[in-house]
Specification:
The protein has three helices and four strands; from the N terminus they run H-E-E-E-H-E-H. With 140 residues, the chain is α+β, with helices and mostly antiparallel strands. The chain has a domain of 94 residues: 2-Layer Sandwich (Ribosomal Protein S5, domain 2). Strands 1-2-4-3 form a four-stranded mixed sheet, with helices on both faces. Strand 1 and strand 2 form a beta hairpin. Helix 2 crosses helix 3. The chain starts with 13 loop residues before the first helix and ends in a 23-residue tail after the last helix. About 7% of the residues have low confidence.
Length: 140
């Protein structure tokens, strides 16, 4: 099959999308929002969501194509760096259709790769009491 995988492993079940929205880690950027979670599978999988807010069918399909191609290259980078495997859900934004796949790929490398390999900062958990900012004295 060569060095880069040509096959795209997709998340298709609504239950898996909802699970990643609820339990996954969120990473937002200019071109997309990504939810991801580590899995025990043998390959990384990806699901892409494009809403009507993005535009007509042509713009939505272009957004999916751009994200899919960037993920194909990014999947190879992640597979080389770590033995962990992940499920990803990418939610396209309005600007995604105007971007090139190389721009999306660079954003994935800058924002996601440090989080996945453990070399960057982990996002703060907003649910714990230690991370919340204390309420002002006037509100107590």
């Amino acid at each position: 099959m060569g060095e880069l995988s040509k096959r795209f492993y997709a998340i298709k079940n609504d239950r898996e999308f909802r699970y990643l929205y609820k339990k996954g880690t969120c990473c937002a950027s200019y071109g997309f929002v990504c939810y991801f979670r580590q899995t025990g599978r043998r390959r990384n999988r990806c699901g892409i969501v494009t809403g009507k807010k993005i535009g007509n069918a042509v713009r939505r399909n272009r957004s999916r194509r751009v994200i899919r191609e960037a993920f194909r290259l990014f999947d190879h980078d992640i597979s080389c760096c770590t033995d962990k495997r992940f499920d990803f859900v990418f939610v396209a934004r309005e600007k995604t259709a105007d971007m090139k796949s190389t721009q999306i790929l660079n954003t994935m490398r800058v924002k996601l790769k440090p989080m996945l390999t453990g070399k960057g900062e982990k996002p703060a958990d907003t649910g714990s009491a230690e991370n919340r900012t204390p309420a002002p004295e006037s509100l107590k």
